Amino acid sequence: MAGKSKGHFLGVAWWERRRFRELSQGRRAGFPCRRAKLLLKKKRYREQLLDRTENQISSLEAMVQSIEFTQIEMKVMEGLQVGNECLNKMHQVMSIEEVERILDETHEAVEYQRQIDELLAESFTQEDEEAILEELNAITQEQIELPEVPSEPLPDRNPEAPAKARSRQAELVAAS
């Protein structure tokens, strides 16, 4: 509809223009005034009809947009409701008291382990500590003692040597 005149919308713009031209020329030539009035009334009626139709179309478009927006709002509300139900179910499964109980148990377990560690640390005598350190030093020395690396450069590899070795091996196999 964009770019078209109102009269063209009903397909009568060219016809009306032609008739008005004829009327204006005919009026000069004695064409009856009553017919000219009638044609102007028809034109005015069509323009009013076109305006009402355009207003109704605008109202329908606004209504469609409103319905679409309401549908989106309903989907959002449904999503919020589902999320709320999930949160409530999770809260039923894990209450604040349950979380506090688990945290208390964890704290008690950590404290108990700390006490065990202290008892084990106190149960070793000075001789035990020295024996543990000597054993640790011995293990460390074993790991540090690596074989000596030759200081001379390695000989260049001869690419023909493996081929000769294979041919020599093939001769020995064939001879046996």
UniProtKB/TrEMBL annotation:
Subcellular location: Endosome membrane
Cellular component, GO annotation: ESCRT III complex; multivesicular body
Chain segments carrying region Disordered: 145-176
Pfam families: Snf7 (PF03357)
UniProt keyword annotations, A-Z: Endosome, Membrane, Protein transport, Transport
Superkingdom per UniProt: Eukaryota
InterPro entries, alphabetized: Snf7_fam (IPR005024)
GO process annotations (BP): late endosome to vacuole transport via multivesicular body sorting pathway; protein transport; vesicle budding from membrane
Family classification: Belongs to the SNF7 family.
Name of this protein: Charged multivesicular body protein 6
Lineage: Eukaryota, Metazoa, Chordata, Craniata, Vertebrata
